[in-house]
């Protein structure tokens, strides 16, 4: 059986510096042409921009800085606290308007007294929800940053820490029960949202 071996080709000759010009034969004009036609600010090689149905948008440094700020734990925590405050105020207003007042049986209340009670109830709900939102978001972001993963355990751990901290105001036993309950609730909500 005969084997076919391709002939060995000679390697290309090395070019001298004056023969490596790109545009023009004169080296001075060639350097000028290279200077004006290439990008000296940023050197990038093999940029691949995937195409999609929408036009491609290259993110600027300002947009990257804004994204970094909005993804920070501080911003997420404050934002959750503000949203919790608003949700708590809405729920407090609703519950105070629906809640039957025991004092109304004994004496007739004025509109000012009713509005004062509604304000106290609304602010109480708002502060509680803001505290829960701020604590939970801060704990979850911290746990996620520490673990370096995004999964269901982050919410469960954060729920346990948040429930424990809130429950500690009533004692150690209440803190343990609060931690277990809030962790189970967080795990159930995370499971429901991701399934």
TrEMBL record:
GO terms for molecular function: mitochondrion targeting sequence binding; protein transmembrane transporter activity. It is a multi-pass membrane protein. Its main location: mitochondrion. It holds the Pfam family Tim17. The keyword Magnesium does not apply. InterPro entries: TIM22. GO terms for cellular component: TIM22 mitochondrial import inner membrane insertion complex. Keywords: Membrane, Mitochondrion, Mitochondrion inner membrane, Protein transport, Translocation, Transmembrane, Transmembrane helix, Transport. One of its GO terms (biological process) is protein insertion into mitochondrial inner membrane. The keyword Membrane applies. It is found in: Mitochondrion inner membrane. It comes from the Eukaryota. Component of the TIM22 complex. Belongs to the Tim17/Tim22/Tim23 family. Essential core component of the TIM22 complex, a complex that mediates the import and insertion of multi-pass transmembrane proteins into the mitochondrial inner membrane. In the TIM22 complex, it constitutes the voltage-activated and signal-gated channel. Forms a twin-pore translocase that uses the membrane potential as external driving force in 2 voltage-dependent steps. This is Mitochondrial import inner membrane translocase subunit TIM22. It comes from Cotesia congregata (Parasitoid wasp).
């Amino acid at each position: 059986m005969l084997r076919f071996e391709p002939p060995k080709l000679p390697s290309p000759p090395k070019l001298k510096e004056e023969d490596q010009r790109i545009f023009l034969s004169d080296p001075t004009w060639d350097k000028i042409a290279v200077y004006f036609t290439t990008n000296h600010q940023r050197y990038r090689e093999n940029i691949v921009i995937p195409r999609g149905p929408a036009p491609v948008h290259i993110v600027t440094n300002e947009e990257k800085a804004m994204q970094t700020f909005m993804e920070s734990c501080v911003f997420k925590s404050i934002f959750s606290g503000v949203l919790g405050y608003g949700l708590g105020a809405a729920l407090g207003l609703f519950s105070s308007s629906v809640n039957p007042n025991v004092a109304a049986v004994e004496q007739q209340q004025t509109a000012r007294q009713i509005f004062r009670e509604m304000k106290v109830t609304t602010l109480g709900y708002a502060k509680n929800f803001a505290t829960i939102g701020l604590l939970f978001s801060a704990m979850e972001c911290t746990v996620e940053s520490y673990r370096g993963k995004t999964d269901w355990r982050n919410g469960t751990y954060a729920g346990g820490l948040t429930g424990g901290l809130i429950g500690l105001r009533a004692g150690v036993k209440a803190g343990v029960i609060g931690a277990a309950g809030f962790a189970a609730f967080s795990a159930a909500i995370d499971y429901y949202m991701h399934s």
